[in-house]
Fold this protein.
Amino acid sequence: MSILYLLNFRDPELREISWNVLSRSIVTFLGVLVGAAWNDVLLHYIVGSGAPASKTIAVQFCSMLGWYLLLQLVLAKVSGAIGTPPASVRDMVLDLKCWVTLLGITTGRSMKDLLGYIQQQVPRDFIHTAGMIPLAGLGLFFVFKVHEYGRMQVALADDGQVDVYELLWERYTTQTEDNATCMALAHVVVQVVRFQITGHLPPANGSVSASESDTGMRSAMLFLSSLAFVALIVVLDVAITREIRFVEWLKAISGNCVAFCLLYAILWCILDYSDARGAVGSMLLAVGVSFVSFLIMFILHFLERLDCTGPRADMEIHRMLQPLAILIGFAWKFAFDASIKAITSHEHVLPVPVMDLTIALLLALLVVPAWRLYILPVILKNEVSKTVKQITEDYGGHNGPHIFGRAQKRAQTHDGVTRPLLSTGPVEPSNGLTSEEVTPHLGLNPEEADTELKRLRQRCAELQRAVDDLRKEQVRAEEETPTKSGGVGRPMPSASAEDEDKARVGAMLLRLGLARAPP
């Protein structure tokens, strides 16, 4: 009932936040559920009981790599990087958002299981359990760089240049890499925190053992740990203002650590102060986590509306919605697992791992289409418009981002005329400027960029003078050519006509960013 109140709240901003958190929680729940069920099937049928650790790690690594490759193939197909280009930009962006979120969570769950199991194999002390975290991050970063090189080769294989669809493929794949990695690394970080609080390293999947729930003081310490991660986000945001991928990783990892700390702190409280276990305890956890998440939503919304918070602070506050979705999604996943375990303990139609995977896939097939068709377009109505506009400006304008470590070219029409990327309007001639001249080069420092811009402005000035000379020659030739009535050609164009021509040329230069607007 509280969800219905939030989804229809009188404050439009809070209503939008509620819809976003609900949408992300649904897909987080489904992604984690499918990923966990798939991992259990692999461990049951391929690894088996008593298998060496090396075999388990190899199987889980292949599982993670398989989800990651599936993610890249799906995004390449949806974005139009391979196959036929999409007919609708809006549908393409919505489909990308759908698969990025769903497969990103599933891939992150596979990474989480892999890193959690590797952490179990190191000596049980702080140095080794915490020291494997940066090594795991470097290993994943190396895997991403190898696949980035592969995507670059695929993008350049067809025509030797990177078009807008391949840029979108790279953009959304990188975004999913960051989300999945930060969720997996946050899991092992919280494992270390719980290890230091309880003295026992939790199981690889993060489940709570009986030794972790013997005092309420541990719940308070874990809650204080979540506040420490919030403080770390604030420090990083204040100390480092540049957008660096490593720093963004640290912020996202800290945000996910807040979610996991709150999740296990609430679970410890339930185990400490109630006798609820199994499905009942998991349901209490899901309800308690949902209540705490709604309370945090109100607090974040209040902070975002304060005048003392600037744009950067508002952006970081808005980013905390993703950890809230992870918090709610994992809590309801625990409740679903407990319910399935209670059912399978009495009915054995199929082996338990197969039954779990079957139920997870059926649930995904039932929920994902409805979520994509009816919830996602409403949630992302403004975001899709902004994304399409940003794509047009970034990849079609002169200040676009640079991917694959090189300057990207503008999209070309079938007749070779340069047009803005994703443009649906009429094609305008480039007035002699090629796409390579308009597109900036990656890696230029500010001095080199200014020099390049001055050169382009000089070129445009020369072209403008050439246009004026050609007009004068054309007018002179028409004046010297006799007409059928025995007179001369049309008279010299008026000053207003010349002014209009110059105004059109100047407007074009302003649109290309090669001229400054008059004060």
Notes: Residues 444-519 form one domain. The chain has 16 helices and no strands. Residues 235 and 251 are 10 Å apart (CA to CA).
